[in-house]
Design brief:
By secondary structure, the chain is an all-alpha fold. The chain folds into two domains: 234 residues, Up-down Bundle (Rhopdopsin 7-helix transmembrane proteins), CATH 1.20.1070; 94 residues, no CATH class. The protein has twelve helices and no strands. 36% of the residues are buried. Keywords: Membrane, Transmembrane, Transmembrane helix.
């Protein structure tokens, strides 16, 4: 599971960090989110067994990667709380609160480092070190400190993200906060499994039995958190790209019907030589194409209803009218701004007209 889920989480984190760094936001909240991506990337990169072993070989300290990866998890929690604090409060009020939070998490990590050194985890274990030493009381204290700090942070994230999601405007920000809260719930599942690791040895239980819960909670929770914190940034761009693709296809599909009308009456078009496709100024070009088709339709059939029904029937009627038209005239009515309904309907008419032309 680690071989697939953890590298996936690391990849998402590093890519998210890159896009965030290339973005425009540089306020305290944006910096906190960038650090969140950084710590998330470190957490899952260090947890890769190959990187884990390399850190042990280079440092000469067995299982040092355990402390570094779990320290990065503490950083993940701290930066999320910092970002929320900067979103919720004015900068002057948020700054001292964030500073105090940082002091607390730095203190937790310092205590973890001290307990890690005392625990003497001398045998390198790249896959199960987190549970292998649970019967070592110094390591058990280390693990309890780590998961308790993380649990408090995750619970706070769930509560604050959901509360903030109800208060803010913006669909994508609300969605992102809810995803982040769901990711924190996954973190709490990871915490529950780690608490169980501590009591497993005294009770004679095998912690490997619930290790998949810990790994799924950590991995899936991290993916949801990464998506949650990144959605407000990339979702509007993704939606804009989707709309552009829709308009590009509409402009292209309208061309056969538009071209047929312009051949019959070149005065209908601002640019009778317009190409089948367009990339630049697509909004304006699509608007013009729809207006010109509507003008041509009224010129060709001046008594037609403004909002006809079946696109196939309309396409057949236009084709029949063009077939018997023996003169060129001008548009019989001024242009009317098209609505989204006009565009979508005309695209269906144009596709039906293209089908008729191909017969």
């Amino acid at each position: 599971m680690n071989a697939v889920l953890y590298p996936l989480c690391a990849g998402i984190a590093w890519i998210s960090l890159l896009f965030k760094l290339l973005g425009r936001g540089r306020g305290p909240a944006a910096i906190a989110v960038e650090l969140f991506y950084l710590f998330m990337g470190l957490t899952f990169t260090i947890s890769d067994p190959r990187v884990w072993a390399l850190i042990g070989d280079v440092s000469g300290v067995p299982n040092l990667a355990l402390l570094l990866s779990q320290g990065s998890v503490i950083g993940v929690a701290a930066t999320q709380l910092a970002a929320l604090t900067y979103w919720e409060l004015p900068a002057d009020e948020a700054r001292p609160k964030v500073r105090n939070q940082v002091y607390v998490f730095v203190g937790v990590f310092a205590a973890m480092a001290g307990l890690f050194a005392l625990a003497d985890l001398s045998t390198e274990d790249t896959t199960t070190a987190v549970i292998r030493y649970a019967d070592n009381w110094r390591y058990a204290l280390y693990l309890l400190l780590y998961v308790t700090a993380f649990a408090v942070a995750q619970y706070s994230l769930v509560v604050r993200c959901l509360r903030y999601a109800r208060a803010v405007e913006g669909r994508w920000l609300r969605t992102g906060l809810r995803l982040a809260a769901t990711g924190a719930v996954g973190g709490l599942a990871y915490v529950a499994a780690r608490y169980a690791d501590v009591v497993a040895a005294p009770l004679g239980l095998d912690p490997l039995a619930w290790e998949p819960v810990a790994r799924l909670g950590a991995g899936l929770g991290a993916i949801l958190a990464l998506l949650g914190w990144s959605v407000p940034g990339w979702a509007p761009q993704a939606r804009a790209l989707r709309d552009w693709v829709r308009d590009f296809r509409a402009y292209r599909d309208l061309h056969p019907l538009w071209a047929a009308l312009v051949r019959a009456n070149p005065d209908l078009a601002l640019d009778p030589a317009a190409s089948r496709t367009a990339v630049r100024d697509l909004d304006f070009r699509l608007h013009r194409r729809v207006v010109e088709i509507l003008d041509g339709r009224r010129w060709l059939r001046p008594d037609v209803a403004e909002r006809p029904g079946d696109p196939r029937a309309e396409a057949a009627a236009i084709a029949a009218a063009l077939a018997v038209r023996d003169r060129v005239g001008a548009a019989s009515a001024p242009a009317v701004d098209p609505s989204d309904t006009d565009t979508a309907w005309l695209v269906r008419v144009a596709r039906a007209y293209s089908t008729l032309e191909q017969r």
